[in-house]
Amino acid sequence: MSGGNDDDWERRISTAAVHAGEMHDPSGSHIDPVHMTSTYVFEDSEAIRSWGSGETDAHVYSRVGNPNRGALASKLAALEGFGMEEPVAAEIFGSGMGAVSASLLGLAGAGDHIIAQSVLYGTTNHLVNEVLPKYDISTSRVPLLEASLLEAELASKPNTKVVYVETPANPTMSVVDIARTVEVAHSHGARVVVDNTFATPVLQRPLSLGADVVVHSTTKFINGHGTVIGGALVSRDPDFIENGGGALVRYMGAVPSPLDCWLTSIGLKTLPLRMREHCANARALAEFLEAHPKVETTHWPGLERHPQHEVASKQMEDFGAMMSIELGDFESASRFMDGLSMSSLAVSLGNVDTLVQHPASMTHRLMTPEDRKAVGITDGMVRISVGIEASEDIITDFDKALSGL
Ligand SMILES: Cc1ncc(COP(=O)(O)O)c(C=O)c1O
Prior knowledge:
Bound molecules: pyridoxal-5'-phosphate
Oligomer: single chain
Number of strands: 12
Number of helices: 16
């Protein structure tokens, strides 16, 4: 990895991933136990009084809080806030969409406006286009949140409360300049939310670039092993986590199970190690695909000809393990996918094994063909989540599948 400005950051974030948020259970258990309980017992009515008056802290009911959820929140907050002076807080949700919804509903209400970039994960796209307007929250799109266009949109919509960013974006891999977006949004009093699922805090830390809120589908690289659906909301404003968007986890009930939090915490310990392998494999595969005559285009921000390569180099430590390729049409994309043997055909991403999916018929099928075309999601596009298998084996699998075209 490039290592950003601080050569030592990578080793130190590895230490934080292993040690931050660990509970150190009084039993002496080396690994945190899983607290599979719905409710908690108070010793006596004095303990209830002291908790109720705020003199002591206590777990009461697992929808409100649970030790495993708290431990995962602390670990993730330590990583997203790595190197920052200000405190960073997090809340864990039962899915990435739970966290995305809470970020938007926690910052905007009836009569407010939200501006988002054109390309978003399919379900977030549906939330922004179809669900929020039902609650009188209007939305509009600005391609790549390009500064002068964003400036004009903010000026014409003074009720804008949120500018929503997903970078790199699913599935086109376009990259939004976070610091520039923050500068423009803040000058109009809007908050900036960044979906950091593709990059993870190992590669990109939006809060340190000025963003107000980070959301994650922890289902992906954070857990890393494909065992859990989960999400997270992270903010530099502890009150937003305690009483704003974060509190929606308990009011809307989008809670994760303690076991899921425990599995995710275990996965998170190896995130820096896994991202190093994911990124190195992605580079090898992207260079192979870029040179392959059957591949029309390879979208990966690490390639110099990627239109936002410079922005990605500035704000990311490395370029991640997500990419998409253009194979021309649906028929070629299908034949390619049917020719793979080691890689799996599946939605989701960020697992240790290589996953391949077809956005137009899978993750982004709810969009109309016209809407997909307008944001660059073609019928011939295949999205790849590069795993941590030996890079030669991934390339051999892809080479074989491409030779059938
Ligand atoms: C970028 C991004 N954000 C959010 C989500 C939603 O996460 P979840 O499926 O955990 O609800 C996804 C899911 O694929 C995603 O790719």
